[in-house]
Amino acid sequence: MNPLEYKLSGGALFYAIIVILLLSLFSSGFILLNRLWFVENALFLKNTELNDNLDSVDQWLRAEPGIVQAGQAKELDLFGDSSMVRIEAQSWGLLRLIKSSARWRSLTIKRNTLYSGVNNKGCALYLSDNNKFLSLVGKCQIKGDCSLPTLGIRAGEMDGVSFIGIKMIDGLISKSSNTLPKLSPELLQSWYGYRDASFGSTDSIVSINSLTQNPDCTVSFNSNTLVIDCESDGYLQNVNLSGNIIVASTGKITISSSAQLQDILVFAKTIQVANDVHGSFQLFARDQLIVGDNCRLRYPSFAVCLADQTSPKITIGKNSVISGGVLIDSVNENPIPGRLEMTEGNKLTGMVYVNGEVGFAGQIDGGLYCNRFFISTPRGYYENFLKDAVINSESVLARFGSFSIDNAPDQLKLVKLCL
Question: What is the full per-residue pLDDT of the chain (419 aa) written as tens digits?
Fold first, then answer.
């Protein structure tokens, strides 16, 4: 038999090669697709695991604030199985900034989170014992435990008005000392450098004039802090500043209602907040801080006046709201007391600490620590009198979290996630 009589046609051979090639491509594609699906699935599972680890760190920090202090960095093995998470704590004004990260191979998940302090046994009112009664007039409402002078509390009369409330104190009453509980030195020192323009070595410093070129500025907390140096005086208007930004001046800073400020810190000798300013930021003055009328400083906002030798003073205009906290104190032993002047329609949320006297008007959802009260009317001057005052340490707003006087909060409360 002649084998040449049974030749395979060239066309059939061509088609056979094409089929084999297509099958090879299809098989390779299927293997590649399966590999990609496996990698994507592994990344998804690891991404979920890393985020769960960061959630676990958040829960741990809330329950045990002492795990890491401001200025510290630690690596934690969460479950004893090498699930490592790195956390770094910093002070951001009166808040605590936590930078946490979890890593697996080339995958890294980072979070920047702001926390406030919560004290489980805070007072609604702590009034230093100055051998005077606390006298209530009008529709006063004080809800929560209080520390009061030894002489105690009584119904008072002022300009023909007496106490017409139902109950003077809705809570337990204990005796106060003749001074306020001292603030933690760490709490006071956390912002010293920006009071006198001695900025941090890693700060990015620019002049306030640069805002004319770039009025919209957002800086991540993963970047170096942007410090806007106003030198002697500064005026913030028609700007939008957000994130890891500090505005500092050795003189006066004025904030216009056209300024949109979010999460930033402001340091100056004197700070003037114009009428109708809305935003969420922290203010640190050395001598005086004035908040205008109809301002809404949303949570978490803080108004702080910390003096050297002068008398620190904060004045809050009509119908203005500060949600976060108010702090007035002196760096050194200052014979001149500080002063907080509240006016009609004020609403303060959080801790209010005044090493000095308070002209009370409006409402506080949180706790108030002060040495004495004053009311001045055309008919006279009244010391340790409260008229139509509302203080509630048990309201929903009071549980938002603020700053801790001794810088050792019982718990931390999540405020927000940041860039």
Answer: 555 555 556 667 777 788 888 877 887 877 877 776 766 777 788 888 899 999 999 999 998 988 998 889 999 888 877 778 999 999 999 999 999 999 888 889 999 999 999 888 889 999 999 999 999 999 999 999 999 999 999 999 998 999 998 899 999 999 999 999 988 877 777 666 677 767 877 889 999 999 988 899 999 999 999 999 998 899 999 999 999 999 999 999 999 999 999 999 999 999 999 999 999 999 999 999 999 999 999 999 999 999 887 889 999 999 999 999 999 998 777 667 899 999 999 999 999 999 999 999 999 999 999 999 999 988 899 999 999 999 999 999 998 899 988 767 888 999 999 98
What is the H or E stretch that residue 104 is in? strand 95-104
Query: Given the structure tokens 């007035």, which residue do they identify?
Result: 328
| β-sheet with 411-418: strand ranges across | 73-77, 84-92, 95-104, 107-118, 411-418
Q: What is the CA radius of gyration of the chain?
A: 30
Calpha distance 239→277 (Å, rounded): 13
Which residue(s) pair with 288 in the sheet?
270, 313
Residue type for 222, please?
N
- Domain ranges across the chain: 12-118, 125-403
Closest residue by Cα to residue 159 from 389, 379, 381:
379
Tokens of 218: 């957002």
Kindly compute the dihedral angle of the four CA atoms of residues 155, 156, 159, 160, in this order, to the nearest 10 degrees. Answer: 40
Q: At 46, which helix (H) or strand (E)?
A: helix 10-63
Q: How many CB atoms lie within 10 A of CB 378?
A: 5
Q: Which residues contact 381 (CB under 8 A, 6 or more apart)?
A: 374, 375
CA dist 382 → 115, 160, 161, 185 (Å) = 39, 13, 13, 34
CB 106 within 8 A of CB 43: no
Overall size of the chain counted in residues:
419
Specify the amino acid at residue 226. Answer: L
What does the alpha-carbon distance between residue 219 and residue 79 come to, in Å, rounded to a whole number?
34
The secondary structure of 212-224 as a DSSP string is GT--EEEE-TTSP
